[in-house]
Every structure is written in structure tokens, then in C-alpha cells.
Amino acid sequence: VSQSRYISLLALDAKFATSAGGIIQGLTRVAGVAEQAGLSLDETASALTALKQTTGRSEAVLGNSLKSIFTALQSEKVIRDLRGIGVEVEEADGSFRNLVPVVRDLSKAFDNLSDSQQAAITQKIAGKYQSNAFTGLLKAFRKGGEFDKALATSTGSGQNLEKRLDAIFGTTDAGLQRLANKITEFGGTVG
Fold first, then answer.
1. At 86, which helix (H) or strand (E)?
2. What is the pLDDT of residues 155-176, one digit of tens each?
3. DSSP 3-72
4. CB-based contact 162:172 (threshold 8 Å)
5. Alpha helix positions (H), 56-157
6. What is the pLDDT of residues 76-89, one digit of tens each?
7. Per residue in 46-73, pLDDT tens?
């Protein structure tokens, strides 16, 4: 993980009710599917952070939830159902759209559905075990919601965080090395 990625995770840690280590745990579960779905690391970490704010569940659990939800959003059956409510998942050439605008579009359309339509869409995308995470995701992805706040923090606060790390640890490199050591330590216990 590059220094800028550490800084992004630390920025989310500093501003939201989450931790860099927790985000890493969530990322280890969802990163492959998120990358396949066209999400950047910042977008995926921001989605985990936003979902943590709306649900209060652990980042590891949320990483598994996002993996299931992102996978379902790319299934033919769900794509057909989403088209039926005006949400396009694919580009004109058949490639998948980035899931950020897809989830935003779904969030807007979802509010205009009947209760039974909402329940059917939720069941198809999230099943019964991920339904709270799914509704939390829709809430978090509304314009100006937790996802936007987290993404702005992740992508835009590197310089501010570097200054804070310098003040706390003496140098940005020392602070990042300490975080890298913790991540390596975590990797050793998981792997």
C-alpha cells in the first residue's frame, strides 16, 4: 500500500467513527469484487466508511456485505430488474458502469417505489442477511450523504493529514511506518 493510501485511510480514521485497521479488514473482503465493479480504492474505502456510519456494523462484516451486494448488482437477473425501474447498470457497449453512479441512481429510484417493490429489489440484491447493509448503502449514497463526505475526505485531505502526522509523530514517514507496521502485524494474524 502506497503512502498516499495510508494517508487516505488515516484521514477517514481521523474524521469518522471508523479505524484504518477496520477499513483494511473490510477491504480485504471486498477489494476484488469492488475492483471488478470499477471502484477505486478511495471509493471502496469511502463506501465502507459511509456504511459504518449508517449501520454501526464492523468494517469486516460490511466488507462481506458489500461483496455480496456488488456481486448481485452485476447479475443478469438484477440488471433486468433494475432496468425495469429505470436504473442502468451497463453502458451502451455492454460494459458495466462504475457502481458509484449505479448505486446513486438506484437510491433515487428506490424512494419512488412501493413498499412491495422495495422489498422485492432488496431481496434480490441483498437477500435477508444483507438487507440492512443494502438500505444503509442506499442512504449513504444519496447526494451530500456519508459517502460523499467520506470520499471528499479520502481524496482531498492528504496534505492536511500530513501536517497532523508531522505534529503528532515528528515526521509523516514515521507515522506512516508505524501504521505500516500495524498493518503488517494484522496481516500476519489473518494470513
1. none
2. 885 555 556 556 655 555 666 7
3. HHHHHHHHHHHHHSS--HHHHHHHHHHHHHHHHHTT--HHHHHHHHHHHHHHH---HHHHHHHHHHHHHH
4. yes
5. 59-72, 76-84, 99-111, 115-126, 131-140, 146-156
6. 999 999 999 999 99
7. 999 999 999 999 999 999 999 999 999 9
